[in-house]
What we know:
With 162 residues, this protein is an alpha+beta fold. The protein has one domain (6-161): 2-Layer Sandwich (Beta Polymerase, domain 2), CATH 3.30.460. Helices cover 41% and strands 22% of the residues. The protein is built from seven helices and seven strands, in the order αβαβαβββαββααα. The chain has helices spanning 6-16, 25-30, 50-58, 92-95, 111-122, 129-145, 155-161, and strands spanning 21-24, 40-45, 62-66, 69-73, 80-84, 97-101, 104-108. α5 (111-122) packs antiparallel against α6 (129-145). It is globular, with a radius of gyration of 15 Å. The N and C termini lie far apart (35 Å). 33% of the residues are buried.
Amino acid sequence: MDKSNFLEQFIALLDENAIRYCVIGGQGVNAYVEPLVSLDLDVVIAADQVTRVRELLGGRFKVIEFPHSLNVASDESDLRVQIQTDERYADFVQRAEMHDVLGLALPVATIDDLMRGKVWAALDPTRRASKRQKDLADIARLVEAHPRLRELVPAEILSRLE
């Protein structure tokens, strides 16, 4: 899956340059509930450091920029990193907690922040339908494991989960 230690190199680059970040998305959900396999790692970078991260990554990895994300990859790895640049996620970094993710101790968004992000993603009409279905599954996983999170889920999503 990863012949180049892409994940370790990516995390080392962030750590060596004091980049504040946290894991979100499916891997973040996996830190709080029974994990599912995924080849994506979604992260948020502190808003004031995104420009610096673009510069650092450009020389070491393949980087493709989209309106609200930077997709980072290596030719020798199946793992893909997506850096979320949507400003709604900016505060997640300061509240992050350390958890095991893909065998590494990494800062992960709080469970409440993860739910907020999953709700935003599930309601985003510009996302592919298959991605929104995965977001709904992640919301269901979180609510099943932590019923109090149900209060963070809008009725229109809850009705789709039942």
